Amino acid sequence: MLDLEVVPERSLGCQNYEFILGMHFSQAVAIIQSQVGTIKNVQVLYSDQNLLNVDLIINISASGLRLIFDSVTQRLKAIEIFNMKLVRLRYCGICFNSPEILPSIEQIENSFGSTHPAVYDASKNSFALNFRGLTFYFHVDNKTQANLGNHGLSSLHFGQGNSPVVSRMTLYCGNSFAECKAPPLPISCYNKQLYVESATVIRNSSSTKGLRLNLFTEGSVRNLESCKQCFTRDILFGDNVQDIASSLGAPSRVFFKSEDKMKIHSPSAHKRVQRKSDFFYNYFTLGIDILFDARTQKVKKFILHTNFPGHYNFNIYHRCEFKLELHPDKNDQLNSNPVIVTAYSKWDSISSKLLEPSDNPVVLHRSSSTNCSNIFGSTFCYGYEDIIFEIMNNGFIASITFYSTSSQSVFSPWAGIQRNDKFNDFDIKLK
To answer: What's one Pfam family here (predicted)?
Structure first.
């Protein structure tokens, strides 16, 4: 049984780990993976067709615990304990819920102090006791329901042994669970990493020049507390390894391409012999991959990831909040309406403005080297100018690839969506 400390409007955790409101989905997953054998029976719940309007949930059924993430920001919005019998809870070091201590109304008031009268919900036969950042829900039986009337719980006196006990509890930021939102990423969760606030694609009439990144990270210490530091960096095609490292720091991982199965799409691919391996700089917290040419050591490709659940690479990257502006009418860019593409755009809304109806996609199917099947299925890649859109079966963009059109760069534009470690430590369920 987990023994956890409750901190209203902040966190639920213990000495070894802490689930902090506002933390990114991948950080919560990392905690769970580090507690193998302690945190058990974990499932990820999401809506396959309605990814942006239904919360992303990590359900820890063995501990009666549910972590609720905002589907857009993918940050922890609320924590729900739906089975109080499966977990031991403390507040300010004092236990208020355990097999030996029932969380009755009197126990909650003794632990957390007085608050407003409880709010009764007749449709659910329950009432809620609200504190700032914390709500306790009690089930109402028929005898208690007859005594409620219109006076609320403040007028009730429960006999010894008859006091209702908490059936579930929610932890959040703000005054009510119904109106709570995921807070910004707490500085305690920065972990000295770099994060992207927004990314703008720098383009001319028909080609990409690079990316303008609005970044933030942990700044200098002021009054014994760290602060958020923001800055902007431009990364361009033709930048060398030193340029990128100076702008973005060391990558999360360096990936060397061992083979290129997509080179068949390049003209005269059989005549080309690659003696050295191109390599990626993977920036997981930015949601960006940068491909360098093996010969020149210069950037020739950018890949931006959206990190939607249901994709093979889900949970490897943070979502890159990019904005891409395209002008299909090259002859009259001033008067034509641009096509705006973001990480939340659906392919149906932009494809008719960019592509001919006869354009056919390249089908991309990922699988691991251990012959494990890809439960998420194939994705579809569409080319437009110097851009490749990778589209999921539900129409959402999985990634966007920008490749250099320089005559000095000789390679397949379709190559380079490299295999990564797949998200296989959880059961994935669709709502």
So the answer is: PHAF1
Q: What is the DSSP string of 344-369?
A: T-BHHHHHHHHS-TT--PEEE----T
pLDDT of residue 287: 97
HEC string for 217-281: EEEEEECCEEEEEEEEEEEECCCEHHHHHHHHCCCCEEEECCCCCCHHHCCCHHHCCCCCCCEEE
What per-residue confidence (pLDDT) applies to 419? 36
Count CB neighbours of 403 within 10 A: 24
Task: Determine the pLDDT at residue 227.
Answer: 87
CA distances from 182 to 72, 73, 179, 325, 416 (A): 10, 8, 10, 29, 34
User: 85-90: long-range contacts at Cβ-Cβ below 8 A with a sequence spacing of 24 or more?
Assistant: 86/1, 86/62, 87/1, 87/2, 87/3, 87/4, 87/63, 88/1, 88/2, 88/3, 88/4, 89/4, 89/5, 89/6, 89/169, 90/3, 90/4, 90/5, 90/6
Q: Are 413 and 386 in contact (CB under 8 A)?
A: yes
Where the chain has pLDDT below 50, the residues are 146, 149-152, 154-156, 407-426, 428-431
376-406 tens-digit pLDDT: 788 999 999 999 999 999 999 999 999 988 6
Number of H helices, E strands in the chain: 5, 27
Beta strand 397-403 pairing with 299-305: antiparallel
Yes or no: say if 240 and 250 are a contact pair by the CB < 8 Å rule: no
Q: Which two tokens stand for residue 60?
A: 């820890």
Q: How far is CA 361 from the centre of its chain?
A: 27
Q: In what helix (H) or strand (E) does residue 282 lie, and over which residues does it extend?
A: strand 279-283
Closest to 386 in 3D by CA, of 402, 398, 399: 402
Residue 113 pLDDT: 85
Report the DSSP pairing between strands 322-326 and 195-203: parallel
* Residues counted in the chain: 431
For residue 224, the model assigns a pLDDT of 62
